[in-house]
Design a protein that fits this description.
Blueprint (H helix, E strand, L loop, with lengths): L2 H6 L16 H8 L6 E5 L4 H7 L5 E6 L2 H16 L2 H8 L7 H9 L4 H8 L2 H6 L6 H17 L2 H7 L5 H12 L2 H10 L2 H8 L12 H14 L7 H8 L12 H9 L4 E5 L2 H6 L6 E5 L9 H14 E11 L14 E3 L1 H9 L8 E7 L1
Parallel strand pairs: 1-2, 1-4, 2-3, 4-5
Antiparallel strand pairs: 5-7, 6-7
Helix pairs in contact: 4-6, 4-7, 9-12, 9-15, 12-14
């Protein structure tokens, strides 16, 4: 079974799985170091990190995804950048309140392809609530926010967690006020493999996972709430509040808005697997890859096969960045002559990664 067919046969790609990108775009852009003239390939997901890559100044950004629903997310974002001012873009996403997101959608609708228009016309409730909450993964966090978090902490305590303070004060707050037995117990239940597979990710995504899922995520949550600053973390803020309060992901920040809007003509997207796309690119064609966490969903054999394709299609010095959440995937030793592991850079970036549930950032370079 090929890497492309493996996940497509085991998971349903007709719905929005991720209405936001849950990899830290600041980390991604530091890992890739996109320069003028670069040709970049990005796993589309919801589109945020693909759009962030436009700000890097590359010549082309090519988004690929197996899911028409995920590409509809990207396409509506592109239309919103074209049709809306920055504040209304935030409102359409759900980062900010708005009395009528349907009106915002209507201003974007004529810029959509017929396929994307049909998709979003059939999802009025998701538009009204903010398209950043429309995915299965985001609904999973919404259930945690609505039904689990109130059993653990009050709104006032959540607000105090998100206040800016020193690292020492953050650690004291977490240990003395946040890290209760209810927090540990209900976190372990809700973020278990079973519950996460049922409500959040597709159960097939856990096929190659070994060891305790909630213990790993809980340890990373503590790191993100103490070593890092929750007041500067849009991912924690969305999980706990259902919106962005004092922080935004890279593509939604005002200082990046016009730069992304001005470069939208450099973006293209394709509904196909990365494997199929690379089959048609030829050798030495790509400079930068955003590979999200797609290798987690593949067998070791298929991971290695796709990594060979990525290396063949990459120019000398091409960089690839990807994440390990629950399955370890790193360049195998036998590919050392093809790919160089940038472990020092990757380790430094992982220490500042605000998307806290990942166990490793991987950065590699084509030799």
């Amino acid at each position: 079974m090929s890497a492309a067919s493996e996940i497509s046969r085991r998971a349903d790609f007709s719905e929005i799985r991720y209405a936001q990108c849950w990899e830290d775009a600041d980390v991604l852009l530091k890992a890739l170091d996109i320069r003028p003239g670069h040709v970049c390939v990005s796993v589309a997901s919801a589109g945020d990190n693909t759009l962030a890559m436009l700000a890097g100044g590359g010549e082309r950004v090519i988004a690929v995804d197996l899911s028409p629903a995920q590409l509809a997310c990207l396409e509506l974002r592109v239309a919103a950048y074209r049709a809306l001012p920055h504040g209304d873009l935030l409102a359409l996403i759900g980062s900010r309140p708005h009395p009528s997101r349907e009106d915002l959608y209507r201003r974007c609708r004529s810029l959509l392809s017929p396929e994307a228009r049909r998709f979003w016309d059939a999802h009025p409730h998701e538009i009204a609530a903010g398209i950043g909450g429309a995915g299965k993964f985001e609904r999973y966090f919404a259930r945690f926010r609505a039904y689990v978090l109130p059993l653990i902490h009050s709104r006032a305590r959540v607000a105090r967690l998100l206040e800016g303070r020193s690292a020492e004060a953050r650690a004291a707050f977490y240990d003395e006020q946040w890290d209760t037995w209810r927090w540990r117990l209900l976190f372990r239940v809700f973020f278990s493999r079973t519950v996460m597979g049922w409500l959040g990710r597709d159960p097939s995504f856990f096929r190659y996972v070994q060891g305790s899922v909630p213990a790993r995520i809980l340890a990373r949550a503590r790191y993100a709430m103490t070593a890092l600053d929750p007041s500067d973390n849009p991912y924690i803020q969305w999980i706990l509040l259902g919106r962005h309060a004092t922080a935004l992901p890279y593509a939604l920040r005002q200082e990046n808005f016009e730069r992304i809007r001005a470069r939208l003509d450099r973006l293209e997207w394709h509904c196909r697997s990365l494997e199929d796309f690379l089959n048609g690119t030829g050798d030495r064609a790509i400079d930068r890859y955003n590979l999200s966490d797609i290798f987690e969903y593949m067998s070791e054999e298929n991971y290695r096969r796709l990594l060979e394709q990525v290396a063949c299609a990459g120019r000398p010095g091409a960089r690839l960045a990807y994440w390990n959440m629950l399955v370890e995937r790193r360049r195998p030793p036998e590919m050392a002559a093809r790919l160089r592991s940038l472990d020092e850079l990757a380790g430094a970036l992982h220490r500042e990664d605000k998307a806290f549930f990942y166990q490793r950032v991987v950065v590699e370079e084509v030799v």
